[in-house]
Amino acid sequence: MKEQVLDCHVMDLHIPRRSPLLLDVAVLHADEVVRRGLETLLRHLDDVGSVHTAASAELLGQTLAHVTPDILLLPASLETPTLRELTGAAREAGTKVLLLLSELDRYHVRRVSGLAVDGFLQESGLSAEALNQAVTDVRRGEIPAPPGLVRELLAVVKAGERPSRGPQLTPREEEALALLVQGMSNKQIARRLGISEHGAKRHVSNVLAKLNCPNRTVAAVVAVQAGIAAAPAP
């Protein structure tokens, strides 16, 4: 009888489900309006738990001494040495970097094309929806990029400002690359190739390594230049 009572108590217990892990995000931007605007938008995203802001690289360094964010938003307008130092430190810490682009001209695109970042956002006209999609993509291991960036990268590549193709790709890697150039995510590539998402991610990682490219966007452009894949439809 005692055992039956205990069983009833167990059945009555409410065991809460574990909630999804929320993201810690850090933002660096000297413009107070932009910085506070990004903070407000980020705090309203379902996936974001906390937001840390800094007006300078020095202040950001003080924050990062105590916090390791999941995602770091950096403006592309920072001086190149500072950008490389911050993106390098983020990579070592396991933090993903979203780069905020204020300009999409040839000069600015060339500056950021070699950075090992995890996504790009265009500051002009940035909406809550676009920011949410970028955060979601980065969390899934995708690299968001505005269409204008891809067009300018193509122009940079055609001008001979990127290295030519690397070692030979396997047929499967070429298939994955062709879909990557069309802007597909790892999940979409997996579906098209009839493989697991993990398998698609492995093929994409191999492509980036063989083409010596820091991210998917640059890999797509280099592939078009080398004739490995057809350019995406306008």
Automatic annotation (TrEMBL):
One of its GO terms (biological process) is regulation of DNA-templated transcription. Pfam families: GerE. Residues 162-227 form the HTH luxR-type domain. The keyword Cell division does not apply. GO terms for molecular function: DNA binding. The keyword Transcription applies. Keywords: DNA-binding, Transcription, Transcription regulation. This is Response regulator transcription factor. It comes from Streptomyces chumphonensis. The lineage of its organism: Bacteria, Bacillati, Actinomycetota, Actinomycetes, Kitasatosporales.
